Amino acid sequence: MTRARTSLLPYLLLAPSLLFLAALFLVPLLQTIGLSLTENGELSPANYQRMVGDLNFVPSLRNTFVLVLVVVPAQVVFALAMATMLQKLRLGRDIVLWIWTIPLGVSDLAAGLVWLAILQDRGYLNSALMALGVIDGPTPWLTYETPVALFFSVVAAEVWRATAIVLVILVAGLQLIPREYAEAAEVFGARPWTIFRRITLPLLRPSLQTALILRTVLAFEVFAVVYAIGGRNFPVLVGEAFVWQTDNQNTGVAAAYAMLVVVISLASTVFYLRALRTPPEQQP
Amino acid sequence: MADIQIERVRKDFGAVRALDEITLHVADGEFVALLGPSGCGKTTLLRIVAGLETRTAGRIVIGGRDLSDVPTRNRGLAMVFQNYAVFPHMTVYENIAFGLRMQGADTTRVQAQVKRAAELLHIEMLLDRYPAKLSGGQRQRVAVARALAVEPPVLLMDEPLSNLDALLRLEMRADLKAILQEAGTTTIYVTHDQTEAMGLADRIAVMHGGRIVQFDTPMAVYGRPQSTFVGGFVGSPPMNFIKVDVTGGQAKLGALSLPAPVASGSVLAGIRAEDFALVERDKGLPFNVLVVEPLGSHALMTGRVADQIIRVVAPPDTAHAAGTEIGLAPVQQRIVWMDAGSGTALGRSA
Ligand SMILES: Nc1ncnc2c1ncn2[C@@H]1O[C@H](COP(=O)(O)OP(=O)(O)O)[C@@H](O)[C@H]1O
Ligand SMILES: [Mg+2]
User: Fold this and answer.
1) Which DSSP helix (H) or strand (E) runs through B138?
2) Are B131 and B88 a contacting pair, CB within 8 Å?
């Protein structure tokens, strides 16, 4: 009797959260799959055909991928450098970390608007450049004609906004690595860069994996920052889903875009789980 | 030549003085144990020698070279850490090879040295394994092999056996002694276990409260402690300190009268448990037996002398039982007289 009760108890305690997830995640997901695969109540690939045939499909796919491929590695490199520097601080480490994580508290739309204020025609950047005499008058950076400037503006905003989450995960991960490993390496003659490459980085692999999965999945969902800064001058996948849903009133195609993002996210997660796996025998 | 000279080394952690003017000379090829209770500064001193910890004042000179401001990686040392610090993501082979690779040794030398070190520590069959699959004792051997593979002139060890069970510790102790004697490595070995220090070291530096309170051979530290602290810390059971009154230069222990190093007053007679002869009650110092522990090789008796509890080693077949009263006759030339106030050794009596 007691035994049966104790073995049931964990499931009972888990049940509310499972029900909650089922209601608010699984059901919408199944509905989205359904929506994307039907037209007028019949099974049909039409929504996917319309998505692929759309003028903005290839640019949005390409933009999203290029953005992820530039932003995520940049964020990991920055976060690694920042976390390593934090490790070396004796005093005020918490304050520096706290300041670095301020952008985490800013919503992505607000972050986009901050960067819009900096980068628009009469924004802070142009004012500064004019004062320095680099440019003569207001110069547009965020238009269809300046794709490179627009792209790097989006990259800057994304890096500014979301590097901190990688940083927080890596700082926690670094703190889990006992100091003796680096000290032992140092005693046996390793230089700081060698220690980083041969000791710290391999031991940080589990944290890197977590940070990469989290950041990559979110980067594929990039939307608000891009639209605040560039509008539809820089189409991305989730943005297209939004446009099809609101402007074109076509939920089916929007659902197809959403499913594409889900599949890409899952694929990248599986990729990281395999590529950055720590074999059990190598776990500390 | 790789002698170690630690000169007037001081270390403050904020307001806490962890090391107070430590001076210690370890001869080339010598095995010195740093022995002391937890928190006395042993690890801090070892880490300062390695350069892993900064010092507040003083110098570290190894083989005639002042290394005080040389970074750890250029000091040419090897170290065995208390938790081994064997790299979990490398095989045993790569762990042992690590120091050699850092030195840029060629493949033949790496192979030869790893093989030699692994054979020395009987872990040849573990070379392809990862540390997670090893027992504590095996990891410990890997840590020692990693240190020996670079053929270091100086080896530092911080309580390397403290995480092993008693039997394994005994076995590793004997192995270590044999290996290091053969290699002729200058070694500083940190431990809080006095048996380990006694068994391994050429000389023992006993530390207490950030100072070295005695630096001598194991037998001298054991037999001629310079303070009640050393006598109490080294040896099991600890040395007995019996308070006796002296009049006319003679200390009165029951029926016995022994020459004391002071003319009058109160002194402590430091006597090891095994340095008593058991005699009849009225022929020696009256000893009230409270407990007898038969320990196989001998019997340990705990009892009362006047109002003091002391321990006495008796032959294993002793007939004295708890509740009896016997006499004790200390071996006179082994008594260490201590000042009753300061607890430091007085000049020898006879
Ligand atoms: N990093 C540190 N910060 C502050 N105090 C320390 C630090 N390391 C050691 N201490 C202090 O220095 C003293 C000696 O410590 P330690 O050398 O570790 O002793 P042992 O190895 O003999 O047990 C202790 O009082 C300890 O609390
Ligand atoms: Mg210690």
Assistant:
1) helix B136-149
2) yes
Domains of chain B: 4-231 (3.40.50.300), 237-348 (2.40.50.140)
Which letter does DSSP use for residue A284 in this model?
A: -
Q: For chain A, which residues make up each domain, given as ranges?
A: 66-234
The burial of B87, by beta-carbon neighbours within 10 Å (0-12 exposed, 13-18 middle, 19 or more buried), is given as buried
Whether the pTM exceeds 0.90: the reply is: no
Note whether B102 contacts A188, CB cutoff 8 Å: yes
Per DSSP, the three-state class of B86 is coil
- Work out the minimum CA distance from A183 to partner chain B, whole angstroms: 7
Of B73, B75, B88, the CB nearest to A283: B88
Which atom belonging to ligand 1 lies closest to the Cα atom of B41? 17
Contact A246, A204 (CB under 8 A): no
Best residue among B9, B10, B11, B13 to mutate for probing ligand 1, ranked by most atoms within 8 Å of CB: B13
Architecture of domain A66-234: Orthogonal Bundle (1.10)
pLDDT in tens, B74-123: 999 999 999 899 999 999 999 999 999 999 999 999 999 999 999 988 89
- Rounded Cα gap, residues A161 and A74, in angstroms: 13
Distance B34 CA to ligand 2 centre (A): 10
CB B188 within 8 A of CB B26: yes
CB-CB under 8 Å, A281 with B129: yes
What value of ipTM does the predicted structure carry? 0.86
Size of interface A-B (CB pairs under 8 A): 65
- A281 CB neighbours in chain B (<8 A) are 129-130, 132-133
Closest by Cα among A107, A56, A110 to A239: A56
Report yes or no: B319 and B299 within 8 Å, Cβ to Cβ.
no
Alpha carbon nearest to ligand 1 atom 26, residue? B39
Question: What residues in A contact B87, CB-CB < 8 Å?
Answer: 181, 184-185, 199
Lowest mean pLDDT among A109-123, B161-175, B182-196, B210-224: B161-175
Nearest residue (CA) to ligand 1, atom 16: B41
Cα–Cα distance list, B50 to A188, B4, B83, B219 (Å):
11, 11, 16, 29
CA distance B142 to B117: 9
Query: Which amino acid belongs to residue B123?
Result: I
B185 with B152: CB under 8 angstroms?
yes
In the predicted model, what is the mean pLDDT of chain A?
91
Report the 3 state secondary structure along A78-105: HHHHHHHHHHHCCCCHHHHHHHHCHHHH
Cα(B44) to ligand 2 centroid in Å equals: 7
The rounded Cα A218 to chain-centroid distance in angstroms is 3
